[in-house]
Structure formats: C-alpha cells, structure tokens
Amino acid sequence: MEGVTAVPSPRPEPAGPSRTGRTSLAAALLSGALGAAVALLATRQQWSEGVATVAGGAFPLTATGSDVTGVPAALAVVGLAALVAVFAVRRAGRLAVAAVLALSGAGTVAAALLGASDSAALDEKAARASGDASATVGALSHTAWPYVAAVGGLLLLVAGLLALRFGRLWPAMSGRYERGGAPRPRRAAAPADPDRPEELWKALDRGEDPTGA
To answer: Percentage of the chain with pLDDT > 70?
Structure first.
C-alpha cells in the first residue's frame, strides 16, 4: 500500500488590518458625529443665571452657551466638516484633516471648561438692564451644560485621534482614477456605418465613390 503524504492546505491570512480599519472607522464616525451634535446642543442651553438690581428690584437674568462663548459651536462645526473631509483626501492630506479634527475637539473642551465659570455675559446683561455700565450680576450660579459641551468636544478629539492613528486604513471617495493612480481608459468610439446617408454624403464630399466595390 502506497503511502499518502498529507499536504496541509494554506490557511488564509487573518484580515486583521481590514477589520481594524472597519472598526476604527465606525468608532470615529460615531464619536465625531455624536460629539458635534452634543456640543452644538449644549451651546443652545442655559449655562448660567443670576439677578440684577434694577430700580430697587431684582431682575432675573440667564445666559446660554452661545451668549457666553461662540467658540465651542464654531469648533464643533469645523470638526464635523473635517470628519467628512477625511474621506475626500489621502496620505498627507488625510493626516492634516485628522489633525484639524483633533484640534477642534481639544479647543471645544478648553472653551467649554473656561465658560463654565464665566460671568461676563451676565454682567453685560445686568449693565444693559440697569443702565449702569459698572453693574454686575448677583446670586450667580451655573448649570452642567458647559461640561456636556466639553464631553462633546472630547468625543471629537477621540474621532481625530482615531483618524490620525488608523486613517491610512480607511477608504477614500472614488474619483476618475483607478487605485494605481492611472487614468481610466476611455471607451473607443464605435466605427461609423458606411451605409448611413450622412456617411455617403461625406464620401461624396471627399471625392470618393461610395458605390464602388
């Protein structure tokens, strides 16, 4: 009985980079989109409240996040635009856009935390309400919304860091070029039918006999 040699079949290579790219892409998209939405929502909410003295009476005042600072909302929009632009560029351009995304998140966090204890917006409202430029607000208190905006900025920062680390594994928007960088070949025009009337007239104009064998 002849011996049989068992030849092991080659095992398929694990799709580690591909799986990592898909996972990091999904995480970055979710983190970036949620972070921008949270930051924008938080800036529309009340961040602080106080009381101004007007004509001997107390006048309640409130300030939203956009009253305190417009930086978190602006950076959230920039971060969202950078998240979309990541897929429109490649190589060095992708790294640059990913850096913009990360910096937008970091800036949103910093601006929100600085605005968490700010009283300038309410002091300005108190001065307008009382007609006294030196008036300040009293009984000042703050809400948790600035910290919610900071959480949104942190999510944007995470999306930017993921893009910096794994962006090279992500797909890009398709263009008129193939993956190798060469332009796609154009389709050849179909040959003209010599029996068509317009082709017969063109042959006569050139001095040819279209009926010749």
So the answer is: 70
Alpha-carbon gap, residue 32 to 16, rounded angstroms: 24
CB of 112 within 8 A of CB of 157? no
Query: Which runs of consecutive H residues, i.e. helices, occur in the chain?
Result: 16-43, 65-68, 71-85, 91-115, 120-130, 145-166, 197-205
Tokens of 39: 């930051």
pLDDT at residue 19, rounded to an integer: 81
DSSP state, residue 57: E
pLDDT band at 117 (very low <50, low <70, confident <90, very high): confident
Q: How far is CA 133 from the centre of its chain?
A: 42
Alpha-carbon separation of residue 10 from 13, 79, 144, 173, 198 (angstroms): 9, 45, 58, 34, 62
pTM of the model: 0.70
Q: What is the mean pLDDT of residues 24-42?
A: 94
Q: For the chain, what percent of residues have pLDDT higher than 90?
A: 38
Structure tokens at 153: 């900025």
Coil, strand, or helix at residue 140? Answer: strand
The token duo for 111 is: 């601006």
Name the strand (E) or helix (H) holding 196. none
